[in-house]
Design a protein that fits this description.
- The protein is α/β, with parallel strands linked by helices.
- The protein has one domain (about 5-210): Glutaconate Coenzyme A-transferase, CATH 3.40.1080.10.
- It contains four helices and 13 strands.
- It has helices spanning about 5-15, 85-95, 130-135, 195-200, and strands at about 20-25, 45, 50-55, 75-80, 100-105, 105-110, 115, 140-145, 155, 170-175, 175-180, 185-190, 205-210.
- The strands form two sheets. Strands 4-3-2-1-5-8-10-11-12-13 form a ten-stranded mixed sheet, sandwiched between helices.
- The N and C termini lie close together (about 10 Å).
Length: about 220
């Protein structure tokens, strides 16, 4: 069965390490903030100027002026810092982010990512995605494996305008966790109950399937 958005965020949270500075993109990536282990010191950063994002607020902790880059209300953890966006982008461009988690429209087997524009549709802007893919060496993309119409989002070559070229090495979809090496998607893990045949059928780009592909573990319903 395909992973829920919350389960995808849980799997990404398994990649966090003590002391990491992490930027969470808009969409599924923002949910990762809810699954940071209590005993792990991780500082979540937003390009609009908050370093030290906490879990999403309850009614009792909601502050309408405390938002992330996606304009969602958030909390600030102890030790958080508020800065202007120029300083936040300087942190990103200077290579001071240990892990970046982004959504995407397409990713291809060469590590290219398209995440900001569909021709013919109005776009408000790229946001910080171009800076993030240029300034980070460690990026995880989270997205559905296929579109609502069933078209694969893991392609031999991106068809949409690129956000960045050759910068993506890991992709987590609702069906699988994959790495990208030498022009090929490598299947590392699969969602519980999802067959390899389904993953193969929904991956348009070249895909290598090892003899053993474990199921993603450690997820809550």
């Amino acid at each position: 069965m395909a992973l829920t958005r919350e389960q995808m965020a849980q799997r990404v949270a398994q990649e966090l390490e003590h002391g990491f500075y992490v930027n969470l993109g808009i969409g599924i990536p923002t949910l990762v903030a809810n699954y940071v282990p209590d005993d792990m010191a991780v500082m979540l950063q937003s390009e609009n100027g908050l370093l030290g994002i906490g879990p999403f607020p309850t009614e009792d902790t909601l502050d309408a002026d405390m938002i992330n880059a996606g304009k969602q209300t958030v909390t600030a953890r102890e030790g958080a810092s508020i800065m202007d966006s120029a300083d936040a982008f300087a942190m990103i461009r200077g290579g001071h982010i240990d892990l970046t988690v982004l959504g995407a429209l397409e990713v291809d087997a060469h590590g290219n990512i398209a995440s900001w524009m569909v021709p013919g549709k109005m776009v408000k802007g790229m946001g910080g995605a171009m800076d993030l893919v240029a300034g980070a060496d460690n990026i995880i993309v989270t997205m559905t494996h296929a579109s609502k119409s069933g078209a694969s989002k893991l392609l031999p070559q991106c068809t949409l305008p690129l956000t960045g070229a050759g910068c993506i090495q890991r992709v987590l979809t609702d069906l699988a966790y994959l790495e990208i090496k030498e022009g090929t998607f490598i299947l590392k893990e699969r969602a519980p109950g999802v067959s390899i045949d389904e993953i193969v059928a929904k991956t348009a780009g070249p895909l290598y399937v090892p003899e053993t592909v474990p199921e993603i573990s450690g997820l809550m319903p």
